[in-house]
Write a structure and sequence with these properties.
It contains 14 helices and twelve strands. The protein is an alpha/beta fold.
């Protein structure tokens, strides 16, 4: 019998066909049907036990001790995310379960969305759409060609704060638009940054001072929380734009709001809020020069296809005796392979 694979993440494309050739696949996607359903640890353990699962694939469900302690035959757990915050890695290792992730699976999607927010913020696209729908051609004696005269991206400077998978994908798209790209990432290799056609910058202050557009692509850590605050925003050129498709906590919301209200910043595009929710009464919601989206930068159907391919590649490598990509702890490799073949 083929080993059982249970997935609460979407499995799509040619990768799904490959998985179905090697595994007995059951998919109960957390996003389908509405409303979305995220299983708790014990509920997930029960469902996996009913199916005799050897491979568990999740996107949003919490995989904790109840899963690892109750499923003797579980060999592999995959989080289809770059940051597998929903996996208890310590419990997985203790149970001999190989934990995998899919880094960069939606990097292209987030990068495209970043560019989209830059256009939307600079050219007033969302506000112009609202004016058309409201039949508002003249507003305060000004016609649209007066109200929406924003800058082109071409020949402007983009400063990237963070140069992981999303930062890299954003950089080459920006260069294709004719932008100069500066990169601040103290953990990235300057030679690698240069090899991609960008300019590495040693100090955050320099990136902020030189960039008309600043885009945040750093991970949320103790070091990065609040790293863009009142002092940092003050270093940006008057009339600059800030885009954040990473975590909200990296940018101080009060400082950003004040800069947008005063006109210090001409605009902003924001795709994440703490708790996945922004109170409609928050001052940001009343500002016309900010574009607000509900954490959808990575929500593309192509990202689902990409992570399915990554899962299929990793499991194929494991079955073939090779090391799969995305391993979080290689010490469980042999045990996982033996369980899959049992």
């Amino acid at each position: 019998m083929r080993p059982a694979l249970f997935s609460t993440a979407t499995l799509a494309g040619e990768g799904r066909q490959r998985l179905e050739a090697d595994f007995d696949v059951t998919v109960e996607c957390w996003l389908d049907p509405a409303p979305p359903r995220i299983m708790g640890d014990e509920e997930l353990a029960t469902r996996c036990g009913d199916l005799g699962v050897r491979v568990l694939v999740v996107e949003a469900d919490i995989v904790g001790r109840a899963v690892f302690e109750s499923l003797d035959g579980l060999a592999v757990v995959v989080a289809t995310r770059g940051d597998p915050w929903n996996l208890d890695l310590e419990a997985a290792t203790a149970a001999g379960v190989l934990a995998l992730r899919t880094p960069g699976r939606n990097a292209a999607a987030v990068a495209e969305f970043t560019i989209g927010l830059m256009f939307a913020a600079a050219r007033g696209i969302a506000r112009a759409d609202a004016d058309v729908r409201a039949g508002r051609f003249v507003d305060a004696d000004r016609i649209p060609q007066q109200r929406f005269r924003g800058p082109q991206l071409t020949a402007k400077t983009l400063g990237l704060v963070g140069y992981g998978a999303v930062g890299h994908e954003t950089a080459w798209r920006a260069r294709a638009l004719g932008m100069q790209v500066l990169v601040y990432d103290p953990y990235a290799d300057p030679a690698d940054i240069r090899s991609h056609g960008n300019e590495p910058v040693a100090e955050l202050k320099e990136v902020l001072q030189r960039s008309l557009f600043v885009s945040i692509h750093a991970a949320k850590t103790d070091e990065t929380v609040g790293m863009i605050g009142e002092d940092e925003i003050a270093q940006m050129p008057d009339g600059a734009y800030l885009v954040n498709t990473a975590r909200e906590a990296i940018v101080d919301r009060a400082a950003l709001t004040a800069a947008l209200e005063s006109g210090k910043l001409a605009g902003a595009g924001l795709d994440h809020f703490e708790g996945e929710f922004l109170d409609p009464a928050d001052p940001l919601c009343s500002l016309p020069n900010v574009v607000l989206t509900p954490h959808i930068g990575g929500a593309s159907v192509d990202a689902d296809i990409t992570h399915t391919t990554m899962v299929a590649d990793a499991l194929a490598a494991l079955l073939a005796g090779a090391e799969p990509a995305g391993m979080l702890d290689a010490s469980c490799l042999s045990a996982a392979r033996e369980r899959l073949r049992a």
